[in-house]
Amino acid sequence: MLVKELGEFGLIKRLSAGIVSTGRPVIAGIGDDCAALYPPEGKVQLVTTDMLVEGVHFRTSTATPFQIGWKSLAVNVSDIAAMGGEPTYAFVSIGFPRDAKVEFVDELYSGMSKMAEACSVDIVGGDTVSAPQVIVNIVLLGEVEAENLVLRSGARIGDALVVTGELGGSDAGLAILEHDLPIEGKERHLMPAPRVREGRLLARSGYVTSMIDISDGLASEVHHICEMSGTGAEVYMDKIPLADNVQKVAENTGRDPYDLALYGGEDYELLFTCKPDKVPLLSEEMQKECVTSLTTVGRIVDISNSIIIEDESGRSVSLTPRGYNHFTSAI
Amino acid sequence: MLVKELGEFGLIKRLSAGIVSTGRPVIAGIGDDCAALYPPEGKVQLVTTDMLVEGVHFRTSTATPFQIGWKSLAVNVSDIAAMGGEPTYAFVSIGFPRDAKVEFVDELYSGMSKMAEACSVDIVGGDTVSAPQVIVNIVLLGEVEAENLVLRSGARIGDALVVTGELGGSDAGLAILEHDLPIEGKERHLMPAPRVREGRLLARSGYVTSMIDISDGLASEVHHICEMSGTGAEVYMDKIPLADNVQKVAENTGRDPYDLALYGGEDYELLFTCKPDKVPLLSEEMQKECVTSLTTVGRIVDISNSIIIEDESGRSVSLTPRGYNHFTSAI
């Protein structure tokens, strides 16, 4: 069946019926002019939004609608995680051609619902419109206790720069998809797992001075933290933890494996700063609670030292902030 | 200058700098992973979102970027007004081609900022991405005291159906633009004025049992109220207040003037219900406070009577819910 046979209101009813609720109460959800919600009394309210456009952020030839739905919510959840918060309510605006199949939209919502369920998110509103290509815009609300809120701006000289998990895996996964390489690990690009539990653990520890999610590559995120904190940084290239698909993709494509980690986007790991002596304790807790590794990849230095990277031969060079940049980079 | 010469981060900086603030406090705004806000303690939180796509919702040949920006925020403000609330924070996701002119984006934001200023809205976050055409997605937060929240579902048998202002003006304005007619009033389509003050006055009166904004034509909105309230309705065609550009456009195009009011979209007036004996008092207050007229256009009846319209010759016919419907209607 095609979307145009169902019509806008038929489609909204169909999609609303399929949405799983976590049981979080709402005063009014889908079906009124606005969603009416209980505010997060006594907490800080978090809001983030991301727009994903077919042909720019994803291709329907390499990603299934389920994966597109999953990822479009996951990238927003990752932003909430980076503030130390928990996601709550999502609003999904979606555009697609009139001759799109209803099954396509069903699958996209199914992927989004699966991600929502995994992260305790309720989808309570949105908009459906016709468009020349598939467009997904998600707004995600979240909340965090004021004392656990972590901004990008709190890094202090001497702090360690630490990452969760491994890097470069998403960009390697994209290369696997684009060049149809016989290598495992393309799901690292297609279905990222946002680090909500990890972000909560770090925020609640009270040791984390700044945090950001790695959506545009490590180099770009280090620059963001330094810019907001008024500091410089040193990154040690040989300390960067590489995802298991990176080495093989680098060999197959002739790329430098560290390039994938530094400048490839969409790993959705967390980058944070804390005093170096707190890293062992946090690592142990993180391994125990979340089975996720922590790795120190650098340290915060005075702003006059700029932002540099020490390469494998021990040479210090300036770390350029390039990463994924809309409008200047090609897909 | 082209957007691609500025790059994503340069563009975000440029746009952020131009945004006017109402002075409402934020913990973190543009520049972190999420916006961090104080929640509306003790109130109901409202959230609405709308996606507008070039070629579907607007054409750059007939609307200036300033008008596109204005309207894209106005339609969201209208949703908050329909709940009896006040808008607070907006998040703007915007997609446009790499070779778009920076001046185009500046003007679009300028229109949005003007609307934001007029309605005391703070733009505190968003996303900028490249896309094949212009896409604007706005999420707007708002708040309302629990006792003043008005839903679509509260209409009771015997209530009057009342509208603010005049109808059909937006669709008439669209016809003026599309056929280049020598008639005044195209700005009714291009720059609608959302009825925030009117919605607040109605909500605070305590008399209003249900409310909705007229975004898809009166016929469609009457159906929404009846569906959510479990009632029927009678609409009196000859009572529908027509905007000043409707008659001339109808004559020029051979259309029925009431068709423009009943089935034309985007007037963004309010439709509400209340006991008939409260209408004179509300009318007087509305005229005094907002210089806006109120007109009774029908009444709520038992659901078994369905939804009918009494035409000019006194015949009662079924009121079809057609209005603007994505996926089934052509632009």
What are its keywords?
alpha+beta, 2 domains, 7-stranded mixed beta sheet, globular, homodimer, 331 residues, 60s Ribosomal Protein L30, Chain: A
What's the SSE blueprint?
The structure is a homodimer of 331-residue chains.
Chain A: H1 3-18, E1 35-37, E2 44-53, H2 65-81, E3 86-96, H3 102-118, E4 122-130, E5 135-144, E6 160-164, H4 169-178, H5 187-190, H6 196-205, E7 208-213, H7 218-229, E8 232-236, H8 246-253, H9 257-263, E9 270-274, H10 279-290, E10 294-301, E11 307-310, E12 316-318
Parallel strand pairs in A: 3-4, 8-11
Antiparallel strand pairs in A: 2-5, 3-5, 6-9, 6-10, 7-9, 8-10, 11-12
Helix pairs in contact in A: 1-3, 2-3, 2-6, 4-8, 6-10
Task: Report on the architecture of this protein.
The structure is a homodimer of 331-residue chains. Chain A has two domains: 3-147, 60s Ribosomal Protein L30, Chain: A (2-Layer Sandwich); 150-318, Alpha-Beta Complex (Phosphoribosyl-aminoimidazole Synthetase, Chain A, domain 2), CATH 3.90.650.10. Chain A has helices at residues 3-18, 65-81, 102-118, 169-178, 187-190, 196-205, 218-229, 246-253, 257-263, 279-290; strands at residues 35-37, 44-53, 86-96, 122-130, 135-144, 160-164, 208-213, 232-236, 270-274, 294-301, 307-310, 316-318. Chain A has ten helices and twelve strands. In chain A, α3 (102-118) links the parallel β3 (86-96) and β4 (122-130). The model of chain A has no long low-confidence stretch (mean pLDDT 91). In chain A, the strands form two sheets. In chain A, strands 7-9-6-10-8-11-12 form a seven-stranded mixed β-sheet, sandwiched between helices. Chain A has a four-stranded mixed β-sheet with strand order 2-5-3-4. The first copy, chain A, is 34% helix and 24% strand. The first copy, chain A, is an alpha+beta fold and 331 residues long.
